[in-house]
Amino acid sequence: MDRQQGSVLWFTGLSGSGKTTTAKAVAAELKARGRLVEMLDGDELRATICKGLGFSREDRFENIKRIAYVSKLLSRNGVVVLVSAITPYEEMRAYARSVIPDYAEIYVNCPLPECEKRDVKGLYAKARSGEIKHFTGVSDPYEEPVRPDITISTDADSVVSNCSKILKWLDDRPRPMQAAH
Ligand code: ADP
Predict the structure, then answer these.
(1) Is the CB of residue 125 below 6 angstroms from any atom belonging to ligand 1?
(2) Is position 177 within any domain?
(3) % the chain with pLDDT above 70
(4) Does the beta carbon of 84 sit less than 6 angstroms from any atom of ligand 1?
(5) Which atom of ligand 1 sits closest to the CA of residue 41?
(6) Does 178 fall in a domain?
């Protein structure tokens, strides 16, 4: 039997930068190609397997460790996993890269003022007022990725064009992400 190989596409960036929006677009295209796809959204996981974890550096790291673990389980069974989680520290991204065999890091770059203007979930306003503490970009750090495999800009480029860029990168790899046989 021709087993599909899995991969993990790890979207990192500020809240509201467009991780989930872009990941959804890529997931839809991969599904259309016949791939098994799963999306792991940081916010959703914090309500389930990561429930109870806070936003200290240690808790954020534990959060990422759990997501990386589930990603690895799925990807080794042929699933393409799309993770959208802020993943603010380089150390965490290096960890994910080290434990996941086929890890691709996608830096979703969007300037803080633009993320704040979007304020999709109303969280920046709460962070500015002090209602939310340890908010990435406002009162907690976001370390820019030092070696992302792909960087997309969501204030300059459209979802469609960023999605194409990611798919092209996947297809141009030595082991392209083609349809199932
Ligand atoms: P994140 O998952 O990073 O927190 P979301 O994807 O939930 O971010 O939200 C990003 C917001 O920015 C959405 O409301 C989306 O419609 C908007 N947006 C505007 N332009 C873009 C773009 N080019 N790429 C992705 N999102 C965009």
Answers:
(1) no
(2) no
(3) 94
(4) yes
(5) 2
(6) no
